[in-house]
Amino acid sequence: MQRSHTRAYSRAPITRVQSPAIESPPSYSGWVTKHFTKETDSRRYVLRDDDELLAVLDYTTNGRSVSLTRAFTNPAYRGRGHAAEIVEYAVDDLERTSDFTVVPMCWYVGEWFDKHPERAGLLHR
């Protein structure tokens, strides 16, 4: 932190200036442009901020069901809800564009469905 000091005989106030150094990844409050895509050839859903990869959700198709096999968030952006966003996007996409059921093979996807019981109708039985 940079500081501007004054001597005891000066009447000028002491001002403090915040260092411009960034110690952690920037906060996304208000300026992020998120892009969700479904990469069919790679069998994955992707969440990006411009060119920066935020999260990925891999899947496989098994007849009339889709197994959501792995949710991954870029370590620099973990703890910001990106995994939940990509799972929600994928579930919304599957519900909107197909009649497939969902098999939550990834522990995170299973927990997401536990937290969203209103979506349980999509689960493979």
How are the elements arranged and paired?
Layout: E1 2-4, E2 15-17, E3 34-39, E4 44-49, E5 52-62, E6 65-73, H1 82-97, E7 101-104, H2 107-115
Parallel strand pairs: 6-7
Antiparallel strand pairs: 1-2, 3-4, 4-5, 5-6
Structural descriptors:
alpha+beta; 34% strand; 125 residues; Aminopeptidase; disordered N terminus; 2 helices; five-stranded mixed β-sheet
Number of domains: 1
What is the total tally of β strands? 7
> Largest sheet, order of strands side by side?
3-4-5-6-7
Order of helix and strand elements from N to C terminus? EEEEEEHEH
Strand-residue fraction?
A: 25-35%
Percent of residues in helices: 10-25%
Radius of gyration: 22 Å
Determine the structural class based on helices, strands and strand pairing.
alpha+beta
**What kind of sheet is the major sheet?**
5 strands, mixed
Q: List low-pLDDT spans.
A: 1-28
pLDDT averaged over residues: 82
CATH class: Alpha Beta
Q: Which term fits the overall shape?
A: globular
SS summary, helix count: 2
CATH topology: Aminopeptidase
Distance between the termini: 58 Å
- Second rung of CATH, namely the architecture: 3-Layer(aba) Sandwich
The CATH H-level homologous superfamily: Gcn5-related N-acetyltransferase (GNAT)
Structure explained in plain terms:
With 125 residues, this protein is α+β, with helices and mostly antiparallel strands. Strand 4 and strand 5 form a beta hairpin. The protein is globular and about 35 Å long. The N terminus is likely disordered.
